[in-house]
Predict the 3D structure of the following.
Amino acid sequence: MALNPTQIANLVEITREDLEDVESAVSAITSAQETILAADIVSWNLKRNSIANLKGKVNYDAVDLLARIFYRVRDMLGFDEIAFTVDPGANLEMLELETGVNFG
């Protein structure tokens, strides 16, 4: 099972690395690692927009999960460790753009 282009794009988002670097790293992983990455991508997609609730409060459970996925995926693909940071306001702004609702 090879990762599809959407999954590769998700890995670019997760790792914050260039597409070419991610594609190169993915070409060297095992099928077991690929399975783990696919599961992490699903979890990332389920939680990435849950960092800030509608009142702008930070959901620390989501942040913790995303950080663990970020570090695990970067390590699995052989990227150097960098700090995981999140801007809950940016996610709230994206939600506002997607829904057309201003959450103040």
Q: What stands out?
A: The first helix runs from residue 5 to 15. DSSP finds five helices and no strands in the chain.
